[in-house]
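Repro:
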Amino acid sequence: MNQKTATPVRNFSVQLSPTPRGARLARLLATEQLRSWDLPLDPAAHIVAELAGNAVTHGKVPGRDFRLTLYVVGGTLRIEVSDTRGDRSPRPRQSSPEDESGRGLAIVDALADRWGTVPGPHPRKTVWAELALPPEPDRPCSGARGGLFQDPRR
């Protein structure tokens, strides 16, 4: 009998106010969730900060919250931030050294393996980013773990 062990799917989702405090809370909650899953905090925390900051700055509609969602499936962490400004698609822009803002999506592009947007349902949009996770210590990526297994009692 061939029995496969299922890879657990982990997820976390929270709705937050579209304020600077909500964006900061998104980063803090994501950091704590990643820590509880024993996953690396960087660069995921930076990506969450940028996407949440963009949702608060560009996706804000008074009285409507934004949502942060984290998924871990297999070896991939997916970060999603949904806001209620589906009519505004995010676009990376060129910024000059004197600009005080406008680099968020360039940072996400540099840190994430992939990123993009998904429309809807109306009036929402979701901006997502994915990161490949390092292999788990007890699951080597190929072959044995760096040589022959040794008896730890020697």
